[in-house]
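Bench notes, afternoon.
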Amino acid sequence: MKQRYYFIFIVIFFSIGWKETNQVRKQNLTDYSLKKIENLGKLQEDTSAIDTLINDDFVHSCIKGMFVKARDKSFRKVMIFVENKHNKDITDTVINLSFKLDEIVIYSSKNNKILRSARIKNDGSELNNIRIGMKLSNFKDILGEDISNQIELLTVSNLEQTNRFDFQFRNKILAEINYDGYLD
């Protein structure tokens, strides 16, 4: 009879101990899960975003704005004559415009002018109401697109990706605009 009581006592003792251990494990797992969720939230806040948008109208408008900006008298102009790749008898012109940190390169042939590249970096420089030094929230209003608040680099290109604008942000402030255009 005593053996039965001992056996029952041992079974009860181990089952209580197992339940307590299981509850502690569940609590530790819950704490671990909560910490992981918190860390994931912090990681998302700290992680910078890089995004690409396709917007033909916006790109076309910015290219027009770049040509308007190129007419500014404060730019220093250097012209380089180059041989046309398709017809060696024709001479084209590469026009380099610079003012402090801003640079615009235009390829000019007999019939047209093509924006080749640009870098807009001077504090306060503007392109279609987009100003270096503006807050990300104001940029988002002008762009009219929903982009991440952690964005560091936003690329906006046309569908063919032959014209690309890169908008670089530092601490949610627009720091630089770069343009790269495909030239055949």
